[in-house]
């Protein structure tokens, strides 16, 4: 057995797929530091099951995945494949070549496979453990592991020997047995607790079971007594109801007589009312005439009063009142108009005076201000001279120096700005050139983007279709479940619990009852839409049971009676057919028989039941059909029945069995369709899953190519960004320098301007004299300005006064003219009104004279109309008196009828209550005793004798006692009531009864026996597990003892070769307990007396660790070893000794050595060189050093 090949893909620095072909012998792997040599060792450990990220020189497990470099994007997974030659059968697997692979995804998932078959990490470890390769990986000696061996505890060193000796599988067997033992102990504890609890519950449950047995006997007495008392109440209530029905006929006869008398009285009342109605027109006419004449008289009197009032108004008309003369008002308006024109002229004059005052004031103020500025300038010149000409000279010189410095600064900044502009132009040229290159890369990127986008679109389309299919499949499953539940629920509705159901159950038992064809709902098929109508037409027969003939019907009735199974309707087959022809029906109607399909033997019976029954759409059609054909019974689709002598209908809250059977058939068909649809969607989903996987692969390939292009673009973009930053920095610097130049020029201009001002002040100071300027002229001009302002104020006041006077009289002339016009119009209207009143007064006198004449004639007409009205009213009074007598008689008869009706209603209520009591008794019998009313009265009525055995302690009248002679006594209610009270008292003395105690006690006893057997099985299992643990301990002790002895001898031999003249040995820390003892290493190099490893030099410690490992390798050889720079700390002499040992190990094992030593390379059979490329990816080259000899 040896390692044949190792393939790394995406593992650490091996981004590309890299394969190392390995052969027996020594294979050396060389390369510079950091090139990835140790990653090969990590890959071997990782693929053989290493689960510690720290052992693989990482922080977390996904660190083994290629993380990417500046020139290559990161990968999403790492994969290592190890192929082992198993031609010698060292591995317990029937393959000459074994391939172990491990894949790690960045999402955290990890997959293992053996020869392409997925497996677990435990399967890989179990496969390698038999060859001496365990969890500790002692065959892989990595960097720093030598120090780990030296600093290991004695127990850890023991672990190395156990792993090499193959003790691990025995340890696992022991650990598994101990886990089972712990679980067994827990189960034993729980079983003991359960048995204790069950034993504690058995005793009281036994007592409850005994009480339940006694209660059964007492409850039988209670039931029998209750049944007889209830039957007595039922028979008594029925008899009372029959007597009340007989008494009702007398009251009904008297009520009919009273109703006849009321009808006669009402005829007389109607005749009198008709006569009174005939007199009404004459009376109404007389009254209307009288009322009309009275109204006319009142209107005439009102007219007479109105005429008198108008005459009075005409005689008292006043003369027209006069106001101010309109001519005087117009003259006064002319005078006011002249005043307005004079005031306007005065305002214009005063406005001119104001403008002249304003002009004089401005001139005076300007002269005073000019004089004030002149004197101020003279004062400043004197002050400057007093400050001294030397100071002005200093300021002038300073500004000259500042201006010169500003000129120099402008020159320097201009040169710097030109340099920055030149650098910006160079960076921009480089940026443009690189941008052209990026454009070419972008073209390729667009193609990759399009490819990726197309693949992604295809994937999204498949996923959308798949999601839609999954939703449809989920909906189909939901529909299928709903339909199955509906079908089950409807089938439960078909389950019968009455006599019909008992017959159907008996038919299922072969040989018990023959001739049953099934329920009518099951054997009859109804056209869709007519189920409710057929159920209503059949009535109770819809819930009946179909039988083959009359003999079968009699057998079924005998069975119902014999087993007390209740009652059931039976539809008999084999009856003779009805030869009569059915007449034709109008359009829209159909005979009920025509929509029913059944067996031919049942057709005559159904035809008889549905004789002359027609189906129509609604009640209006039913009414029309029955009116046309009285011998036909019409049934609507909603189940309403209408005949010539009977009708039924209303709401239909409960479905019939025919409707339920139709719903079951419909649900069955829809369920079959839903199942077919669900299967079709399942197949379609599988096909789309395959398409989705293909599309996902295309997306992954396109995405990988796109990532590579993105990495290239990123590098170019980074360089492009650098050029852009340089150009922006240079332009920014040029802008800043330009702003500095502008500020320097501004400062120079300010200095030049200040210099000119100072030179002017200096010249003025030098030319000015020392005399103090005079202020007399300034004072005179200031006084003149004040006088001008006062004159302006006076002119403004005069102008405002004139304007106020003008506003006061403005519009007064117009008002006077309007008043004159209004006065003339008022005088004209007053004259016209006086003339109108005079005309009305003359007309009113003529009207008053005519009205007085008409009123005299009208009084006579009113008297004649009153006489006519009185005559008609006297003629009606006699008939009204007679009508009042008839109505009094009607009231008396109505009162008597109401009393009779009330009596009938009271009796009806009493009978209704009696019927309700009978129904309550029947429901009580059915609920408490499970007996219908007829069976209760027939079996337990007061006419039935009471068996003496029923009164005794057994209280049973079941069929079990039929064989014994039973004495019967007549029924006496008091004795049965006394018997019921005694039984109930006995039942109360028993206390609370657990009706399930008998079943619970039996179940508890059975459980106790079962748990007792289980407890014994667990104890037996515990003994077996302890025997296994002892056997494993003995085997481990034997294997470890033999392995330790071999390692101890090999260590002594190897140590003497590596340390000639030195002494080294292995020592057990606890020789008396070989299962737990640790191992100490003692080493004394030649010429030294120290034995502690910590006092040795670094090279000596490395040699001691190498000696221990080589001793382990020789004592329990492994097919291969991986050594990572174990000779790094050795000198040439010790290196030569170690290489000799390598030569010896090569005879039986394969060695894979990571080294930097040239001498180590020389002893190798093959050489692999590992180097790191510029993009950060490791690559491998190989060289065979020794050719295999020809056979």
UniProtKB/TrEMBL annotation:
<dbReference type="GO" id="GO:0016887">
    <property type="term" value="F:ATP hydrolysis activity"/>
</dbReference>
<dbReference type="InterPro" id="IPR027417">
    <property type="entry name" value="P-loop_NTPase"/>
</dbReference>
<keyword id="KW-0963">Cytoplasm</keyword>
<feature type="compositionally biased region" description="Basic and acidic residues">
    <location>
        <begin position="319"/>
        <end position="348"/>
    </location>
</feature>
<dbReference type="InterPro" id="IPR036277">
    <property type="entry name" value="SMC_hinge_sf"/>
</dbReference>
<dbReference type="Pfam" id="PF06470">
    <property type="entry name" value="SMC_hinge"/>
</dbReference>
<comment type="function">
    <text>Required for chromosome condensation and partitioning.</text>
</comment>
<comment type="similarity">
    <text>Belongs to the SMC family.</text>
</comment>
<feature type="coiled-coil region">
    <location>
        <begin position="389"/>
        <end position="486"/>
    </location>
</feature>
<dbReference type="GO" id="GO:0005737">
    <property type="term" value="C:cytoplasm"/>
</dbReference>
<dbReference type="GO" id="GO:0003677">
    <property type="term" value="F:DNA binding"/>
</dbReference>
<dbReference type="GO" id="GO:0005694">
    <property type="term" value="C:chromosome"/>
</dbReference>
<feature type="binding site">
    <location>
        <begin position="32"/>
        <end position="39"/>
    </location>
    <ligand>
        <name>ATP</name>
    </ligand>
</feature>
<dbReference type="GO" id="GO:0005524">
    <property type="term" value="F:ATP binding"/>
</dbReference>
<keyword id="KW-0067">ATP-binding</keyword>
<keyword id="KW-0175">Coiled coil</keyword>
<feature type="coiled-coil region">
    <location>
        <begin position="248"/>
        <end position="275"/>
    </location>
</feature>
<feature type="coiled-coil region">
    <location>
        <begin position="657"/>
        <end position="684"/>
    </location>
</feature>
<dbReference type="Pfam" id="PF02463">
    <property type="entry name" value="SMC_N"/>
</dbReference>
<dbReference type="InterPro" id="IPR011890">
    <property type="entry name" value="SMC_prok"/>
</dbReference>
<dbReference type="GO" id="GO:0030261">
    <property type="term" value="P:chromosome condensation"/>
</dbReference>
<dbReference type="GO" id="GO:0007062">
    <property type="term" value="P:sister chromatid cohesion"/>
</dbReference>
<feature type="region of interest" description="Disordered">
    <location>
        <begin position="764"/>
        <end position="787"/>
    </location>
</feature>
<dbReference type="GO" id="GO:0007059">
    <property type="term" value="P:chromosome segregation"/>
</dbReference>
<feature type="coiled-coil region">
    <location>
        <begin position="973"/>
        <end position="1021"/>
    </location>
</feature>
<feature type="compositionally biased region" description="Basic and acidic residues">
    <location>
        <begin position="775"/>
        <end position="787"/>
    </location>
</feature>
<feature type="coiled-coil region">
    <location>
        <begin position="174"/>
        <end position="201"/>
    </location>
</feature>
<keyword id="KW-0547">Nucleotide-binding</keyword>
<dbReference type="InterPro" id="IPR003395">
    <property type="entry name" value="RecF/RecN/SMC_N"/>
</dbReference>
<dbReference type="InterPro" id="IPR024704">
    <property type="entry name" value="SMC"/>
</dbReference>
<protein>
    <recommendedName>
        <fullName>Chromosome partition protein Smc</fullName>
    </recommendedName>
</protein>
<dbReference type="InterPro" id="IPR010935">
    <property type="entry name" value="SMC_hinge"/>
</dbReference>
<keyword id="KW-0238">DNA-binding</keyword>
<feature type="region of interest" description="Disordered">
    <location>
        <begin position="312"/>
        <end position="348"/>
    </location>
</feature>
<dbReference type="GO" id="GO:0006260">
    <property type="term" value="P:DNA replication"/>
</dbReference>
<comment type="subunit">
    <text>Homodimer.</text>
</comment>
<feature type="domain" description="SMC hinge">
    <location>
        <begin position="514"/>
        <end position="626"/>
    </location>
</feature>
């Amino acid at each position: 057995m040896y390692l044949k090949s190792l393939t790394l893909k995406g593992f650490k620095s091996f981004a590309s797929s890299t394969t190392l072909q390995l052969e027996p012998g020594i294979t050396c792997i060389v390369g510079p530091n950091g090139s990835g040599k140790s990653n090969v060792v990590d890959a071997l450990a990782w693929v053989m099951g290493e689960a510690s990220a720290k052992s693989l020189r990482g922080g977390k497990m996904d660190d083994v995945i290629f993380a990417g470099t500046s020139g290559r994007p990161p990968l999403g997974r790492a994969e290592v494949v190890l192929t082992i030659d198993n031609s010698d059968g060292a591995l317990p697997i029937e393959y000459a070549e074994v391939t172990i692979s491990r894949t790690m995804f960045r999402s955290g998932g990890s997959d293992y496979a053996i020869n392409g078959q997925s497996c677990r990490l435990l399967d890989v470890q179990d496969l390698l453990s038999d060859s001496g390769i365990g969890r500790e990986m002692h065959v892989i000696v990595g960097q720093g592991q030598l120090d780990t061996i030296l600093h290991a505890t004695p127990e850890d060193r023991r672990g190395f020997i156990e792993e090499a000796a193959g003790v691990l599988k025995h340890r696992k067997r022991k650990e598994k047995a101990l886990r089972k033992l712990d679980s067994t102990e827990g189960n034993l504890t729980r079983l003991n607790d359960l048995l204790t609890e069950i034993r504690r519950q058995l005793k009281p449950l036994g007592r409850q079971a005994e009480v339940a047995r006694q209660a059964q006997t007492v409850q039988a007495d209670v039931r029998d007594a209750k049944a007889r008392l209830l039957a007595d109440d039922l028979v008594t209530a029925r008899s009372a109801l029959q007597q009340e029905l007989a008494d009702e006929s007398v009251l009904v006869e008297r009520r009919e007589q009273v109703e006849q008398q009321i009808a006669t009285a009402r005829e007389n009342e109607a005749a009198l009312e008709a006569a009174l109605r005939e007199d009404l027109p004459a009376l109404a006419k007389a009254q209307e005439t009288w009322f009309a004449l009275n109204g006319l008289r009142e209107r005439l009197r009102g007219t007479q009063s109105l005429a008198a009032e108008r005459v009075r108004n005409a005689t008292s008309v006043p003369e027209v009142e006069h106001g101010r003369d309109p001519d005087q008002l117009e003259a006064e308006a002319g005078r006011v108009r002249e005043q307005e024109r004079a005031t306007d002229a005065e305002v214009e004059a005063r406005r001119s005076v104001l403008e002249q005052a304003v002009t004089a004031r401005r001139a005076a103020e300007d002269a005073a201000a000019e004089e004030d500025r002149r004197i101020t300038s003279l004062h400043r010149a004197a002050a400057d001279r007093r400050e001294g000409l030397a100071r002005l000279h200093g300021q002038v010189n300073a500004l000259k120096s500042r201006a010169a410095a500003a000129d120099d600064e402008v020159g320097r900044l201009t040169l710097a700005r030109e340099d920055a502009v030149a650098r910006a132009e160079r960076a921009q040229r480089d940026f443009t050139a690189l941008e052209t290159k990026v454009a070419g890369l972008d073209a390729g990127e667009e193609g990759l983007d399009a490819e990726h986008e197309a693949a992604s679109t295809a994937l999204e389309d498949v996923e959308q279709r798949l999601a839609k299919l999954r939703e449809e499949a989920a909906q189909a499953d939901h529909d299928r479940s709903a339909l199955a539940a509906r079908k089950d629920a409807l089938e439960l509705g078909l389950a019968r619990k009455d006599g019909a159901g008992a017959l159907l159950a008996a038919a299922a038992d072969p040989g018990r009852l023959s001739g049953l064809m099934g329920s009518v709902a099951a054997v009859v098929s109804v056209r869709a839409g007519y189920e409710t109508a057929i159920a209503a037409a059949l009535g109770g027969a819809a819930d009946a049971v179909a039988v083959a003939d009359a003999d079968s019907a009699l057998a079924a009735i005998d069975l119902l009676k014999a087993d007390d199974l209740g009652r059931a309707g039976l539809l008999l087959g084999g009856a003779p057919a009805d030869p009569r022809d059915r007449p034709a029906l109008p359009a829209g109607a159909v005979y009920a028989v025509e929509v029913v399909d059944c067996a031919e033997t049942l057709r005559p019976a159904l035809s008889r039941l549905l004789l002359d029954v027609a189906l129509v759409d609604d009640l209006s059609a039913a009414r029309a059909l029955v009116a046309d054909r009285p011998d036909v019974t019409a049934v609507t689709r909603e189940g309403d029945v209408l005949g010539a002598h009977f009708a039924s209908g209303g709401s239909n809250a409960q479905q019939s069995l025919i409707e339920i059977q139709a719903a079951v058939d419909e649900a069955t068909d829809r369920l079959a369709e839903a199942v077919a649809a669900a299967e079709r969607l399942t197949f379609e989903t599988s096909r789309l899953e395959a398409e989705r996987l293909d599309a996902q692969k295309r997306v992954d390939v396109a995405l990988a190519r796109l990532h590579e292009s993105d990495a290239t673009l990123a590098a170019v973009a980074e360089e492009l960004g650098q050029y852009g930053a340089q150009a922006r920095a240079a332009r920014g610097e040029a802008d800043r320098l330009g702003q500095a130049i502008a500020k320097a020029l501004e400062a120079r201009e300010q200095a030049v301007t200040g210099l000119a001002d100072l030179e002017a002040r200096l010249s003025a100071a030098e030319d000015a004299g020392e005399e103090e300027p005079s202020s007399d002229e300034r004072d005179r001009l200031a006084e003149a300005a004040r006088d001008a302002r006062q004159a302006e104020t006076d002119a403004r006041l005069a102008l405002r006064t004139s304007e106020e006077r003008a506003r006061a009289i403005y519009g007064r002339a117009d008002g006077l003219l309007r008043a004159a016009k209004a006065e003339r119009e008022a005088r004209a209207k007053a004259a016209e009104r006086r003339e109108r009143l005079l005309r009305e007064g003359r007309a009113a006198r003529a009207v008053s004279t005519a009205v007085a004449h008409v009123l005299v004639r009208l009084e006579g007409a009113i008297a004649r109309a009153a006489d006519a009205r009185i005559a008609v009213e006297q003629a009606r009074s006699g008939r009204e008196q007679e009508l009042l007598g008839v109505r009094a008689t009607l009231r008396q008869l109505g009162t008597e009828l109401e009393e009779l009706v009330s009596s009938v209603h009271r009796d009806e209520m009493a009978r209704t209550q009696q019927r309700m009591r009978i129904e309550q008794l029947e429901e009580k019998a059915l609920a408490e005793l499970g007996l219908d009313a007829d069976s209760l009265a027939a079996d337990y009525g007061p006419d039935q004798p009471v068996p003496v055995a029923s009164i005794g302690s057994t209280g049973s009248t079941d069929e079990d006692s039929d064989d014994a002679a039973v004495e019967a006594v007549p029924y006496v209610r008091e004795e049965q009531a006394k018997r019921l009270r005694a039984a109930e008292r006995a039942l109360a003395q028993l206390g609370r009864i657990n009706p399930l105690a008998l079943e619970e006690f039996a179940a508890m006893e059975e459980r106790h026996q079962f748990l007792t057997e289980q407890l014994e099985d667990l104890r037996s299992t515990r003994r077996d597990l302890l025997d296994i643990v002892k056997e494993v301990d003995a085997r481990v002790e034997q294997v470890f003892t033999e392995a330790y002895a071999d390692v101890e001898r090999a260590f002594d031999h190897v140590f003497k070769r590596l340390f000639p003249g030195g002494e080294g040995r292995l020592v057990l820390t606890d020789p008396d307990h070989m299962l737990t003892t640790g191992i100490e290493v003692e080493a004394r190099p030649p010429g030294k007396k120290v034995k502690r490893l910590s006092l040795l030099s670094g090279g000596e410690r490395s040699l001691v660790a190498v000696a221990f490992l080589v001793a382990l390798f020789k004592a329990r050889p492994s097919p291969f070893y991986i050594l990572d720079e174990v000779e790094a700390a050795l000198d040439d002499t010790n290196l030569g000794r170690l290489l000799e040992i390598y030569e010896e190990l090569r005879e039986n094992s394969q060695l894979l050595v990571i080294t930097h030593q040239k001498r180590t390379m020389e002893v190798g059979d093959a050489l692999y060189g590992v180097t790191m490329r510029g993009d950060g990816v490791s690559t491998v080259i190989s060289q065979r050093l020794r050719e295999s000899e020809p056979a």
